[in-house]
Amino acid sequence: MHATLPFLPYIVGGLAVTILASLVTFACAVAIGLAATLWMTTGHPAAGPIVRAYVAIFRSLPELLCIFLVYYGCEIALQKAAVSFGFRPIPISPFLAVTVAIGVQFGAYSVQIFSDAHRSINPGLFEAAHALGLSPRKVTTRVAIPLILQAAIPGLSNLFSVMLKVSALASVIGLEEVTRRAKIVAGSTREPFAAYAVAVVCFLVIAAAAALLQARLERSFRSTREA
């Protein structure tokens, strides 16, 4: 443990990358899920089959495989494009690869959460909004989206917790988040238990903060409803 103590700031410093990667991927997943859900509510004939196929495909793939496909696949595509146009190949950022791969994959889970949230809303609320003369766009932005987000808070909180843990997989492609830095320190100090114990504490702190935020949001929406 004594050899690991001097590296505590280095490991904990990876929290910034872990939190940023988790928040960006979560935002991507929420945006994809909400957009897909709203598209299905429009009644477009292609919406249902396309969204169901997307959900079925990405819910069946391992997260690590998606990261590899995006990271190496995009790198090959960029190299070929650069050669075709006579430019120097640009390496893809591990951060970008992780956010795209996990964001797109967990967007499939987000679709399920938002779809369930939409079904739980009383259809009379949308009918009342239309009866008041609101345009379809205003019904979506001022009624549908706020109600769906409110109903989806518990599910989205659980989704963020899972995405936070999955973000550790980014270490396999070189992203220096908490787990990657703990591995580097463990190899240097020969104290793997101490290094990974610090990483465990870091993840527990983030998870606790997310749980407190969820509880606060639920209380805020509950008080708004009662008012």
TrEMBL record:
Subcellular location: Cell membrane
Keywords tagged on the record: Membrane, Transmembrane, Transmembrane helix, Transport
Topology relative to the membrane: Multi-pass membrane protein
Main location: membrane
Cleaved signal peptide residues: none
A single BP term in Gene Ontology: transmembrane transport
Cited Gene3D superfamilies: MetI-like
GO cellular component: plasma membrane
Domain ABC transmembrane type-1, chain residue ranges per copy: 15-214
InterPro entries from the UniProt entry: ABC_transp_permease_HisMQ (IPR051613), MetI-like (IPR000515), MetI-like_sf (IPR035906)
Record-annotated membrane-spanning stretches: 12-39, 51-72, 92-111, 193-213
Record family assignment: Belongs to the binding-protein-dependent transport system permease family.
Name of this protein: Polar amino acid ABC transporter, inner membrane subunit
Organism lineage string: Bacteria, Pseudomonadati, Pseudomonadota, Alphaproteobacteria, Hyphomicrobiales
